Structures are given as structure tokens and as C-alpha cells.
Amino acid sequence: MSDLLTSSSSRREFLKDTGKVAAATTLLAAAAPHVHAGEDNTIRIALVGAGGRGTGAAANALSVENGPIELVAIADVVEKNLSDSYNNLTSKFGDRVNVPEDQKFIGFDGYKKAMDCLRPGDVVILTTPPGFRWVHYTYAIDKGLNVFMEKPVTVDGPTTRRMLELNKQALEKNLKVGVGLMCRHCEARQELFDRIQNGEIGDVNMLRAYRVAGPTGSAEVPPMPAGEDELLYQIANFHGFLFLSGGAVSDFLIHNIDESCWMKNDWPVKAIGFGGRHYRGDNVDQNFDTYSIEYTFADGAKLFVDGRTIPGCYNDFASYAHGSKGLAVISTASHTRPRAASTRATTRTQPTCNGPIRSLSGILISSNGTTSSRPSAKTVRTTRSTAVRWPAWSRRWGAWPPTRVRRSLSIRSSTPITSLPPRSTRS
Fold first, then answer.
1. Tens digits of residue pLDDT in 242-256
2. In Å, how far from its chain's centre is CA 318?
3. CB–CB of 295/256 below 8 Å?
4. What tens digit of pLDDT does each residue of 164-189 get?
5. Kind of pairing between the strands at 326-331 and 346-348
6. Helices 52-62 & 79-93, crossing angle to 10 degrees?
7. In Å, how far are 106, 212, 229, 305 from 81, measured between CA atoms?
8. What is the spatial distance between Cα 217 and Cα 246, in angstroms, rounded to a whole number?
9. pTM, 2 dp
């Protein structure tokens, strides 16, 4: 990319001639350095889907400071969404929001009208419910537009295959497409990926991912109030309806699945899933309360994913990679990097352990090449000096270590890990 940035091409040519995939801010930040006299170098943006996530993505894009950028069109099916988004963005970015009344579009055909306000090489932000994504993406490709689209990008098998075929067209036109899987832009995870690929935890043979919490987003949908339009009600609560969102797996668990597959540097070839609906009351959404998926990679490695949306239970939002030499903690606190991670690698010697333990970007490995150590019941303490006994972990979570111990481990035992607690012990 640096060669492209130092070339004589204009910023708009840079947008057309590079093939990098980036998120909203990086997509635009990379485009801004070259401005030539007499040339209109302004990158124009259209926002299709002006809810909270769309407004946030537009704000990310307009925050880029190294070049002329302006929002010129907004489309939504709900007038209040559009007006709220316009007012919020105008109050923050002023004249970078240049959306006259005749470029504010309400209705299901508004996406076309908004994109018609752009020129080839400009950027459209697609943040409607994903049930509409392939239709909007098709038109963006036809118009020669670069795209930032929010995840998920498909809702089922047929639309997934359709999107993959559409993406071939985007590649042929050398368009850039960024997707809102923001974990890929985390510098800590990027270094963690490099260290895993360099073999620091050996061969990755198992990954675990958890997103167990209460109801998320609009996944729990009560009956529709009298007098409302049913389609607009479902769109407003799109997390609850499969044709619009694909359900909780593609909508929420996707982040854990994506970062785990990234660390494995591969995609699964097989998946077996289970779920159940137990505590939905009179809700009319189509989501389950519990999800469990076993993914298999071509080399036989497994990824186990557990999800839950029941309130009042133990919560966890984390991902782990197990290798033949050690364990990598991919994430422990929602989308953020692990709480114990630092921006630089640190090594602290533990005389009674199997050599030094390094902790960076969540990685926890035995640096002398031996199997990572599991502490005895007496010898694990957190930075708060709160001792937690292993048998209690096993009975309650069946995972090592639990969230409250992940902040910073001081391991003083040389007892090797022989196996993880059986999954059946998890309550």
C-alpha cells in the first residue's frame, strides 16, 4: 500500500486502483493524501440504513481528517431514523454533511436513489438489516462504488452463495469492500495472529468461543402493538426475524466465530449445531435461547461455540485457541482485547513454573516449548490476590480460567495440563 500512496495517482485513482479491503475509516483514510489543483478530490458518501449502526459508521467515515470527504445522501424506510441520523451527524460534522432535502430518500427504493447521487469510485455505507444486503450490493457493484457493509452480510445459504458470486464481480472491477468485523482491526489481535502463525503455541488443534448473556439487541421481540405495519415492525426489530437477520448466530456469535477462524487461519469444512427455545414467554421472535455448534476444520481441528440469551445466568464473552504447546486467549471482554493484554510483549520469570510466561494480546504460553501448566487448587491468584480453587471452576464453568481470573495470572505450579474439564461438567 505504501507504494500506492507515494505514486502520482490522484486520491480518486487510488480508490480505483487498489484492491485492499478495509473498514469504514481505513477505507477512507487511505484515500485522502493526494489532492491536485483543479481536480475535485472529494470522496462522496451515501448512507443506506440510517439507524444507530449506520449513523455510527457514517460518523467513523466523516472523522477521517486527511482529505475532503462529505456525506451527500441518506436513505431509510423510516423517516424518524433518517431525520435523527441527519441531525446527529450535522451537529457533529457541520458542512461535511451536505445532504439537501432532495437527497434524503424514504422508501424501499431509496437505496438506488442514494447511490445515484454518487460517482464511480465513491463510497456507499450499507447498514440496513442484512436481508436486503445482496440487493443493495448488486446495485453498488453496477454503479462502480466502493462499499462498507455491516455484518452479517447474508442470512442463509442461498444468499451466501449469491454474495460470493457478487463479490467476484467486485473483484473484477477492483472495488474495495469493508465489512464490520472490527476484531480484524485490533492491533493486539493482529500481533496475536502473527505469534500463533509463527508457532508459539504449536499446532492449533482446538478453539473455544462463548457468547453467553441475556437478550441482545432486538433479539427478544414482544407481540406487535395494534395498528402498526407488520413489515416495518419486523424491520425495526430485525434481530428477531430470520429472513432479515439470519438469527443470533450470524448476528452476534459471528464475532467469536470470525476471530477464532482467523487465528486458525482457515475456515471449517463441517458444522453440527444444536439449539433450544425454552424461556421465550409470549415473544414472537424466531431466536433460540441456547446455541451449540461444533465446527471441524480440514485438518481435524475443532471449534466449539456456545451461545445463550437467557437473562439472570452466568455471562461470558470470550474466545480461546489451544495448541500443542500452549493456550492463546483471543478475547475475554466482549469485542475488546483481553484485559490483561499489554501493548508490548512482557516476560516475567516464574521460578516454580515451567519457564517464563509471556502475556501479550491475550496469549498465554509456556515459552520453553513444554505444555502449559494448570495450577493446583492452592496456587492461582489474581492481581486482587483472590484465590479461586480449581474444583470450583470445574463444577461451575468447565473452562480454564474463568473470567475473573483472566485479568492477570500468577501461576506458581508445575502441574501440567493433561486435559480440560469435560464439557458435561459445565452448568
1. 999 998 898 889 999
2. 13
3. no
4. 999 999 999 999 999 998 888 889 99
5. unpaired
6. 30
7. 10, 30, 16, 34
8. 14
9. 0.73
